[in-house]
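Data card: per-record layout.
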Amino acid sequence: MYGGLAKPKRASKAYQEMGRVSMDSETTFVPRQAWLTLAIASVASFMIAIETSIISLALPQLRAGFPDASETKLSWVVNAYTIGVASLLLVSGWLADRYGRKKLFFGGLFIFFLASFVAALSPSADFLITVRVFQAIGGAMQYPAGLALLLAAFPPARIQTAIGIWGATGGLAAALGPTVGALLVDAFDWQAVFFINVPVAAVVLVFGPRWVEESTSSAAAERVDLLGVPLASLGVGTAIFAITQGENWGWGSLNLLITFLIAVVLVLAFIVRSRKHPEPLFDLGLFKIRSFRIGSIGTVFFIVAFFSWLISLPTFLQGAWEWSVLETGFAIAPGPMLCAIISPPAGRIAERVGNGPLLTLGGLCGVAGLLCHLSWTGIEPDLLKGVLIPGLLIGIAAGLGFAQIIGTTMKDVPRDQFAMGGAGRTTIFQLSLALGVALAFTIIGNPNRPSNEVLDGLQITWIMGICCYLVQTVLFASFSITEKANARHKVG
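The structure for this 492-residue chain is written out next.
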């Protein structure tokens, strides 16, 4: 049933009325409601994405605000959100398909709105960590539901454009996160990184429901898999926890090995359960779809390469080059900003040539950018050659990567499983993000070491990124060739 394309059983009212519900439709007309849905989903995606990066800029102020909190406890201000979002995505995907994507999206946004407001008023680190868990619940509810609403609103022929615009919000959040975070914290203290979400979420909650149409899946399981839910949530959550603790515990420590073993057992148990259960929480049959499988594999290598670069470079610039947080943020921002600029037109191009060629070119740009770092970034500060040129090349790689990998992964997923497929894709994204960050910090080590030692670690991180981008290039080049061959075969 899920090994190939399935005709949708339900679509938005606009397409039901126009008879444009076939996955094979070449319709290019996009109703106003679809563009409004895209705007709402993009704003929500931006808030979730920027919340991941912006909080790290407030850690020094959090230390001052909560002087009795240990470094380990403060790290949970970040980890509670990251682990919470990742562990709840699969459950949220099922809930969205079963009970309504619009209901879950705006319900999650309301929780996120309240949690952001309360977080800014936190009297203690323990209270803030607890509220961050609720922020994560709201974020996890929004993400797969928002993507599913977006995909259901657009005709198949225009989905790549929609994903290109939606994906640009990730690059924009990455670009603005460090800079906006530094400005807010410098002007208003740590509370500002939470208050910034409140007015934006309030506007979306007031106007959004009248602009977005509900959609559900007639193929969604009637009852939740009561064993699959804890297995999936605990398995993914434990895996993320182990990755984030690798540097603190030591990658060869007994604690870490036991934690990884528990994660593996839980995930394997979830896979076995999903294969045998008649109505699983996540349909593993999605991986029989070649584009979903290739997109998921490509996500791992692309995300590890990009975020290991984005997270590690500021450490070097602030340590070895002694740049301020603001100087570092403005120096790195052009690359992610270029990503946000490139992503929408790249989506239009993908509608004509496919995602494979763009992802292949993006991988080569990533390789070129990191090679420039290896050649030009040294102990002495050099904004143009050491940061700007490599950053712009990596920005192009990201602009040709984020939306196109989403498009590849989701393009053949049946409409009835949009939220489930999006939840699976985002879970892989979150695991890859945690892995890339953990590997980068582990390789670099203590940022207070002599600058030449930090640079040595950074160069190893860049070499790792080059290897990941090369895998991306080969993977999607071969995928593109196969797709074209299959298309010619069908025509013939």
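Known properties of this structure: Residues 29-214 form a domain with the Growth Hormone; Chain: A; fold (CATH 1.20.1250.20). Confidence is low (pLDDT under 50) at residues 1-25.

See the next section for split statistics.
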